[in-house]
Amino acid sequence: MKVLVTAKRVVDYNVSIRVLGDNSGVDLNNVKMSVNPFDEIGIEEAVRLKEAGKAEEVVVVSVGSSACQEQIRTCLALGADRGILVETDEDMQPLAIAKALKAIVDKEEPGLIIAGKQAIDSDNSQTGQMLAALAGLSQATFASVLEIGDGTADVTREVDGGLEVISVKLPAVITTDLRLNEPRYASLPNIMKAKKKPIDIFTPEDLGVDVTPRVKTLKVTPPDERQAGIIVETVEELVDKLKNEAKVIS
Question: Is 241 helix (H, G, I), strand (E, B) or coil?
Fold first, then answer.
């Protein structure tokens, strides 16, 4: 079975986000970029399936600028066999990404597609579901446990009421939750080997996909700074401030 895994280039989660002076977006100058953490979990799960003999090949795919090759190389160092980049400088949004991935799925015909449940930059949590709908595939989102059987995948999902276990027919789209696994670190030998692994590059035009953005960002603003706390002397003073200043009680 071939496993196709997504990898999005995002601002590293340790970086303090800065908004551009004109509020047009996030300042990406000299900012560390990484693989989306939920996609790292997907890569780890795919590599574990290969190590367990349930997958023969792990292919990592990214959609974005040429700089995404850096994140693809990271995934190759973690154990993926080869990479695919759909290269474009457009502002890629969930539907456009899903269309590009659908074209890659048609070309590669994987038995399983694993995607992060969301990206930490946009938090849309839409791409996996859209891909499943466009490709006509089964889907199991927010997976915390994945077990591959004979033509099926049993998935434990985290839902509001607790845990839900479902079985889906393969090929299917699985999106990862945080508790699915703990991603490994890439070793130096594997980092060196990753430099020789192949990356195929396509453009949206090559795939016959329209990636024109459908949503326009009008303004980006940082959250309000938190005010410093104060110490009150009495319960009456606390109630007064909660009522008249914080407006949290009436």
Answer: helix
